[in-house]
Amino acid sequence: KEHLTIQPYVKHPLQNRWTLWFFKNDKSKPWQANLRLVTKFDTVEDFWALYNHIQLASRLMSGCDYSLFKDGIEPMWEDNRNKCGGRWLITLSKQQRMLELDQFWLETLLCLIGEAFDDYSNEVCGGVINVRAKGDKIAIWTRDTENQEAVLHIGKTYKERLGLPVKIVIGYQAHADTATKSGLGIKNKFVV
Amino acid sequence: GTRIIYDRKFLMECRHSP
């Protein structure tokens, strides 16, 4: 008698459970009321089920954000795991929305869920994409601006993964500076 | 402890698996 065994389908677990957040700008409401938790996942397959289902960033309305953060960390400066941290910031020109925005954001997500920064991945809190008429932004947030070794490793690896040319410089800014200054007043704490 | 790391190639291959 032939015996048919059915292999149970096992999903690939991620190192971390992640939460996707969506922000839709409604100026009549306070900032926090516009922020929605979409869902949580902790396997590769569930990540793709989500990603394949939601709108591409390039098709979101201006003023919207996606954020992907480790479970338990809220996508805001005030969260305890973020308040001493900062972000590696990628600023895109309007022309780049068509060509590179979705590609860069997907690469950012794959870096996060795949733990692309080796042992320094513990320092990562999450990633954010801001879709804005004046120019889109993508960032990876880390938890401690003082951990120079980790911040630099994450920045170098991230730049490589995005395939950015050596001559393009990306900057790391402390949330404490972003929260209190604006635009040109924000100094880069590190660059790679 | 050990960390579960997935490279880009592996993650992309999983995109359309069942």
Primary descriptors:
heterodimer; A: 192 residues; alpha+beta; 8-stranded antiparallel beta sheet; 4 helices; 24% helix; B: 18 residues; mainly alpha; 1 helix; 33% helix
Report the sheet with the most strands of chain A, covering strand number, pairing sense and barrel closure: 8 strands, antiparallel
Weakly predicted, low-confidence segments of chain B: none
Give the strand tally of chain A. 8
What's the β-strand tally of chain B? 0
- Helices and strands of chain B, in order, run as H
Parts with pLDDT < 50 across at least 5 consecutive residues of chain A: none
Biggest sheet statistics of chain B: none
Q: What is the C-alpha radius of gyration of chain B, as a whole number of Å?
A: 10 Å
Terminus-to-terminus distance of chain A: 64 Å
Strand content of chain B: under 5%
- Which class of secondary structure composition applies to the elements of chain B? mainly alpha
Total of DSSP H or I helical runs spanning 4+ residues of chain A: 4
Radius of gyration of chain A: 18 Å
Strand order of the largest sheet of chain A: 2-1-3-5-6-4-7-8
Distance between the termini of chain B: 30 Å
Order of helices and strands of chain A: EEHEEHEEHEHE
Q: Could you outline the blueprint of secondary structure elements for this entry?
A:
The complex is a heterodimer of chains A (192) and B (18).
Chain A: E1 13-23, E2 35-43, H1 44-51, E3 65-70, E4 86-91, H2 96-113, E5 124-130, E6 137-142, H3 148-162, E7 171-174, H4 175-180, E8 190-191
Antiparallel strand pairs in A: 1-2, 1-3, 3-5, 4-6, 4-7, 5-6, 7-8
Chain B: H1 8-13
Structure at a glance:
The complex is a heterodimer of chains A (192) and B (18). Chain A is of the alpha+beta class.
